[in-house]
Design brief:
Layout (H helix, E strand, L loop, with lengths): L2 E2 L16 E2 L2 E2 L13 H16 L6 H34 L14 H33 L2 E4 L6 H15 L5 E4 L14 E9 L5 E7 L7 E7 L2 E6 H7 L1 H4 L5 E11 L13 H12 L4 E7 L4 H10 L7 E4 L39 H7 L2 E5 L5 H12 L3 E8 L6 H12 L3 E6 L7 H14 L2 E3 L6 E2 L2 E9 L2 E9 L11 E8 L2 H15 L22 E4 L3 H15 L7 E6 L5 H13 L2 E6 L16 E6 L4 E2 L2 E5 L6 E5 L5 H5 L1 E7 L3 H16 L4 E4 L5 E3 L10 H12 L6 H14 L4 H24 L1
Parallel strand pairs: 4-9, 11-12, 14-15, 15-16, 17-28, 20-25, 22-23, 23-24
Antiparallel strand pairs: 1-30, 2-3, 5-7, 6-7, 6-10, 8-9, 10-11, 13-20, 14-18, 18-19, 19-20, 21-28, 22-26, 24-29, 26-27, 27-28, 29-30
Helix pairs in contact: 1-2, 1-3, 2-3, 10-11, 10-19, 11-12, 11-19, 14-15, 17-18, 19-20
């Protein structure tokens, strides 16, 4: 069976966008017609619904289903903190009579969109609560994993809870009274609180009210017993509720109810107003605490009078209040996925492999100079990238290392390598993006660490985020200088590298390395990207040979490639375009794809998240197919592939097809020309298109249909990539151990026992691989 998921509306959900017949001829369709574009925010919510549907998929292991529920909840929190702010700004501007003309063809009224967002979110939250209450939590109980109510505890367990409260909880609690002497307190973003009511009345005639913050540092799931494979927990807020008489001994508590608030954490830095970027970001981080509240969540049974009292104090509308049927902040249940339980409750373990060439006991620079290397993470281990950096840092022939850093997450091996290189006298340049959302504080900390080590730390431009991912290594070889480059579709982050799918490219290609060198000169020089004092764009743009850089004509280049595919299309040699990305919202690129479809070019789009393009519309997009793959690993790579008359062209890059990527970020797309790498990229795309298990196909109304094998053999793209990695790669020590080993090497400066063990394992695996290949031949 195929499961249809809810649709995503256009401005008016009608069939008016179909070509009209006039005198036997089709009336031309305006490709910027709002009917041909779905609403961005609602397509984002549709993506999050696909994530939630993985939680309901019975073929996923139980704890993986729970994990998808927590991912859904985390995504939704971010939606309210960031994405909703754009809508709120539009509503505010309209209220002030300011024009809100948008570059997006979907001209939906912001107030109307806010209403639809609220309706959709309530439906999804209800679905998530039902999944937990009726399916996942009962199934966990069958596996001896219990989230207990206080009434379910045995006497011995209750005694342990009482002792835990006295020793660990009570000392850190702070009751916050609300009365004329104590004004309404500040409520922290996403923190859980108990709103405590009392029988006594205040001087204003209202019942006394106080708040108690549930301390996140203690952990919300408190273990009350763990014998063998039996795990029993109680929620921290329930423990506090039981003991409120200790906090308020002179009053009589009538009830305590859980709630939390979500604040708008979006910010905008204006080019002309920023003198010191780091200080401006630090001030924004401090100011975040005071950002307005955009959502109030309350538990089921929250008294109406108390709800209204909170709502008015926080200056919220009724539509901003969400009553959660079950557990607030289900993200906290993620702790259960880390339990030592039956392995069948989790995905089968997979340890990333080392590509055979990089497992050879040879200098890595010799290997790269000999032939390019393409890495497909997480199937190919990210450790290879870390070793490339570590070797460059330690190599006496290395003169300079330059790297862009976006979301490293304070990644110790990455920072350690750059610090070590600087301390070894290399010229180290780190282009740090301080404005990476939610990573700003981390980025400031390790940027200062790099500066103390002697590295040149550059913060990019105020109005542009540096989102390109690249590393340049310059070595002295013989009597000349040789450059090496690593390019990636994903971040330099060893944690996400085992969870996200990305492509990395190691090369010594002269054209690419020269281009990347020019890009770093641009990033560390004056801002030629912005307007001058008269608002004019720069007249001379940088020229590159094998890379394309946003905001320098990247969109124009992609459109020119699509146009070229249209021109080469013939009935005997039909055109074909495949694009894999995270999001498609750029109107100009959507129109270019519509035009290709109208010419007859087959277009396959693999779009994980937002997609405003409307596929399957006669006369417009009947040759376009959109699929979204939601699976064990987060699909994150960006690929552009064009048939080009039988001589394929392909590009990898950091940019999605979104206005922000094309206009407001430094992005990098690069050509893949080496035949063996082209074959690998083509194979990756075709593998995705064959998926009939985790692939959701977008319909003309914006709904998605989950593909099922039917009578065909089940084919799951990510499982196939794991099989290929195991068959072709070289086994090494466990990934997390390898990261710790490299981290230890960075701090000790010599080989660790883990690395010695890894070398032995790789040698044995390499020898077995060689014998296996010999038998084949």
């Amino acid at each position: 069976m195929k499961k249809r998921e809810n649709g995503t509306r256009t401005k008016k959900q009608t069939d008016e966008s179909k070509p009209e017949k006039a005198g036997g001829h089709s009336k031309p369709v305006a490709l910027d017609d709002p009917e041909l574009f779905f609403n961005r925010e609602l397509t984002w919510l549709a993506f999050n619904e696909r994530v939630l549907n993985e939680a309901g998929c019975k073929t996923n292991p139980l704890l993986e289903r729970l994990k998808f529920t927590t991912i859904f909840a985390s995504n939704l929190d971010e939606f309210f903190m960031v994405r909703l702010s754009g809508l709120l700004r539009l509503v505010e501007k309209e209220g002030q009579g300011i024009s809100t003309s948008s570059r997006y063809p979907d001209e939906s009224d912001p107030e109307e969109t806010l209403d639809e967002v609220a309706i959709t979110v309530r439906r999804l939250v209800k679905h998530a609560a039902q999944l937990l209450a009726a399916d996942i939590l009962p199934a966990l109980r069958q596996e001896n994993i219990f989230v207990c109510k206080p009434d379910d505890l045995s006497r011995a367990e209750q005694e342990r809870v009482d002792e835990y409260f006295e020793q660990q909880v009570f000392p850190v609690l702070t009751p916050l009274a609300v009365d004329p002497a104590h004004p309404f307190p500040y409520l922290a973003n996403l923190s859980l609180y108990l709103a405590v009511n009392f029988h006594e009345m205040g001087d204003n005639g209202e019942p006394l009210l106080a708040f108690v913050e549930v301390p996140a540092a203690l952990g919300r799931l408190v273990p009350v017993s763990s014998r063998g494979r039996k795990h029993r927990f109680v929620l921290l807020e329930d423990i506090i509720r039981q003991h409120l008489d200790k906090l308020f001994p002179w009053t009589q508590v009538s009830g305590a109810y859980v709630f939390r608030v979500t604040r708008n954490l979006d910010y905008q830095l204006l080019e002309g107003e920023v003198k010191d970027l780091m200080k401006s970001i630090e001030l924004e981080l401090k100011d975040r605490a005071q950002k307005i509240v955009v959502r109030l969540e309350v538990e089921q049974g929250f008294p109406l009078e108390l709800k209204n009292r909170l709502r008015m104090a926080l200056e919220l509308d009724h539509s901003d209040v969400y009553e959660i049927p079950e557990l607030l902040n289900i993200r906290d249940l993620g702790a259960l996925t880390k339990l030592d339980v039956d392995p069948a409750l989790k995905d089968p373990p997979f340890n990333p492999r080392t590509p055979p060439r990089l497992a050879e006991d040879r200098d890595i620079f010799d290997i790269i100079r000999e032939r390019d290397v393409l890495l497909h993470h997480p199937y190919d281990s990210f450790v290879s990238v870390l070793e490339f950096l570590q070797q460059a840092a330690a190599d006496p022939n290395t003169l300079a290392i330059k790297q862009t850093l976006y979301r490293t997450g304070g990644d110790s091996p990455i920072i350690d390598a750059l610090v070590k290189a600087a301390e070894n006298g290399k010229q180290v340049t780190a282009v740090v993006e301080l404005k990476a959302r939610f990573d700003e504080a981390n980025n400031i900390v390790w940027a200062r660490r790099l500066e103390r080590a002697g590295a040149h730390v550059v913060f990019g431009f105020v109005g542009l985020k540096t989102h390109a991912k690249c590393t340049l290594v310059v070595r002295r070889e013989g009597g000349h200088l040789q450059r090496y480059v690593h390019l990636s579709t994903g971040n330099y982050n060893s944690s996400t590298a085992k969870l996200y799918t990305d492509l990395g490219h190691l090369t010594a290609d002269a054209a690419i390395t020269n281009d990347v060198g020019s890009l770093f000169n641009l990033l560390t020089g004056f801002n030629i990207l912005g307007n001058d004092e008269k608002g004019r764009k720069p007249s001379r743009m940088p020229e590159f040979e094998k890379i394309q850089v946003a905001p320098f004509r990247l969109r124009d280049h992609i459109i020119s490639l699509i146009e070229a595919e249209k021109r080469l299309h013939t009935p005997d040699n039909p055109g074909h375009i495949i694009v894999k990305m995270n999001a498609l919202t750029d109107p100009k690129l959507v129109v270019a794809l519509y035009k290709a479809s109208q010419k007859g070019v087959r277009v396959d789009l693999i779009v994980r998240g937002m997609c405003v393009l409307r596929p399957g519309m006669p006369g417009v997009s009947e040759n376009i197919r959109v699929v979204s793959i939601i699976d064990r690993f987060l699909e994150h790579s960006r690929i552009l592939w064009l048939k080009n008359g039988g001589h394929p062209k392909m590009y990898l890059g950091s940019a999605d097809f979104m206005p922000r990527n094309m206009d407001r970020r430094i992005e990098l797309f690069w050509a893949v020309d080496e035949p063996s790498l082209q074959a690998k990229v083509t194979g990756i795309l075709h593998t995705f298109l064959l998926d009939n298990t985790k692939s959701h196909v977008m319909q003309p109304d914006g709904s998605y249909v989950l593909q099922t094998p039917g009578k065909d053999k089940a084919f799951r793209a990510q499982d196939r990539f794991i099989e290929l990695a195991r068959a072709e790669g070289v086994k090494s020590i466990a990934y997390d151990d390898a990261i710790r080993s490299i981290d230890a090497l960075g701090s000790q400066g010599n080989m660790t026992e883990f690395q010695k063990a890894d070398q032995k394992m790789k040698a044995a695996e390499k020898d077995a691989h060689r014998k296996k290949e010999g038998k084949k031949n």
